[in-house]
Design brief:
The protein has about 525 residues and is an alpha/beta fold. It has 19 helices and 18 strands. Helix 13 links the parallel strand 8 and strand 9.
Length: about 525
Amino acid sequence: MKKIRILWVDDEIEFLRPQIIFLQGKGYDIDTASNGVDAVEKVKKEMYDVILLDEQMPGLSGLETLEQIKEIVPGVPVVMITKSEEEDLMEQAIGSKISDYLIKPVRPQQLLHTLKKLTEESKIREAHVVSKYQSEFMQISQQVMTAATFDDWVKIYERLVYWDIELGDAGSEGMESVLADQKDEANREFARFVQKNYPRWFGEGDKPVLSPQVFRKWVFPKIKAGDKTVIIIVDNLRYDQWKVLYGLIKDYFVLEQEEIFCSILPTVTQYARNAMFAGLMPLEINRLFPQYWRFDEEEGRKNEFEQELLTEQIKRESLNIKYAYRKIRNQAEGKRILEELPNLLNNDLIVLVYNFVDMLSHARTEMDMIRELARDEKAFRALTGTWFEHSYMYPLMQVLGGKEIRLGITTDHGSINVEVPVKIVGDRDTTTNLRYKLGKNLNYNPKEVFAVRHPEDIHLPKDHITSTFVFAREKQYLVYPKNMNYYVRYFKGTFQHGGVSMEEMLVPFALLKPRE
């Protein structure tokens, strides 16, 4: 087992020999320096887990040494040891990001307690989290095998995401692989559930909230109640990524309502977000507003009529309101929205669409650097949080936190990290998406995919009388036999969307109010 390395910096280090021997007896590797200059040089050359730093030293003082050490290794915990309890001194030290401080004379047990707290806290947390997950593992597995309703699957997915985040934060790689296997099994059962039940969700009886019902069920009632409402739609935002964003804005907002609804198939922007804005399924959009619908093979952007579709939905609801719609595709547009916000807030409803997460997902496929930064779901969550903190969306949230509004945050669909190639054959007009195909005379193994030979059964339009939709399930991605080895290597481990998985279909809607 690797020993914890400690650097102890004190101009009277020779008098601390009993404490050093005590710590060495407890398994710590102790290195020493008798002044700040030597300490800084050691930190440049060696790696330490904790630094014990005397505050009052001749020459380079403890605070000055601390400042230089933090420039070299900002993440290493530093414990300040001082004879003084002056408030001003401690404020300076704390402001310089010390991890703890001790007052001389320091007892050996004090030192041991502090070092354990700094070096073993993560191990203790990991053991605690692993123990809790192990105790819930069988319960989740049983729920997966007996799930019979959409609400059952929502509860399962919420717990899987909870443990994904908890185990990831605790750094338990062994248990993360166990959880990954459990998620794979859950997705297999979820795909069977969707294949059996999805077509009947367009008839009478129990069914989940689908993309077309989002505004009608959760947004318009707030407006009718007199609440000024801001809706932010983050394209391709998974439920776990929403949890990261909420962690960054919870100082400004109280979570009033959190829901998981079902994104329609295909889980892509062209279908799911158009359905959300129209309040209609794509089949009805194409019939009622053919000027606003474009098939996959048609030229032009597939979502360029979102504002027009929202207008039609507001008319059908007989809402006499002022509303605004904006789409943000880059930082310049994000800055412009922030500057425009005072005028936007004169509306009853403001809808803002942010495309970054979807752009990040596609960039991860195309750019090796992004693929390395977002190599797995944990890293993808972290990268999403980093984007948010440095985007103009973050200060927008801070400003909105001081307004009398209701804030809704949602998405059109999620994405999944694909691993398993599945062969399919189609003609040149077949769609290129890796998670679903729309085409005529498609050749595939019906046992491997979810095929819908009559798209109207799931309220999707078709551009040809023999058109069929084929959806990938679980972690599959659809590839053609020609150049198959290239596509298998290029797309394996990328985040894709369009098919059937919990990550793509079970997506968040959150309603928040500013903190008082």
